[in-house]
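Here is one chain, start to finish.
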Amino acid sequence: MHILITGADGFVGRNLRVHLGAGGRHDVTAITRQSPAGALDDAAEAADFVFHLAGVNRPTDPAEYETGNAGFTRDLCAALQAAGNAAPVAFTSSTQAALDNPYGRSKRRAEEILLQHAAATSAAVHLYRLPNVFGKWSRPDYNSVVATFCHNIARGLPVVVHDPDAALRLVFIDDVVEALLALLESPAAGGHHDVGPVYETTVGAVCDMIQDFAASRGTLEPGRVGTGLRRALYATYVSFLPPDAFAYPVARHADPRGEFVEMLKTPDCGQCSYFTAHPGVTRGGHYHHAKTEKFLVIRGSARFGFRHLVTGERHEITVSGGEGRIVETAPGWVHDVTNVGSDELVCMLWANEVFDRSRPDTFPLKVDS
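Its structure:
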């Protein structure tokens, strides 16, 4: 398909173009404010589908709302009709189209122009009244408060929260793009469409979460960033890090046996770390009542020794780096790890709970005692 994207260098446009480019299946024409005269007419004639993303939301002159939103939409529809092209059009409007303010009125007028175009040409017109969209490549102090928070906090700059209880309705850019791309795979009837999930939150809650992400480099606790709003916010925050902040140090605890480094702690799924051991060194030598651990040897050779606390039963497992074999410790078994190779041992370690100094559940005892 030949895809026409207006506002192709904007926040939504950039994300959509990258997704379309990854598939390599479509020919994309990008229309921006820098496009030469006549480019819109040529693109409108060739288009099989139009993503109308262009718009104005923070002009210096309020009159630009009308020309940039309603006026440009009128130009697009005129170009399509002059070419006799009834290609489907997807338009990213705003929830503010329901409000009586200059921006909302201009977006609502753009919707009306598109619906008139649909009636005149039988083209399918898809209208998306989006709430605040956030994600990578958004502009601070322009697209959303999320972008401003992420940009400033990632750089150690102050943020201002006038009303922490102010409500926010947010939708993630990837969910917006997914909804738009779905139109290419499964054409739908025109009309108003929703994009979800929409996250209902507050300005203060968003600011607090982003500040937690920044602090997690010290605490090693990013929180639950695998699903929902925290996942999307964390991805957005990290996308705002300057390249010289991509790396950061963590504490290294070294002694004559080797070193131990914690990497990540979670509120309810334990923590990850790694340790090293010099040839002949034994580490561990303790037992747990409830805590369990998983070990993965990355380099070297390790002998894991076990002894049952009650029966005295013994067991040994030898694992070398590259085997992709995990050794798990069981409560009630004394265990240790010995480097039985000639090279330094490097081993990853996961424990099912974060170490608590007040309740360590770690009791020293030698396997061979």
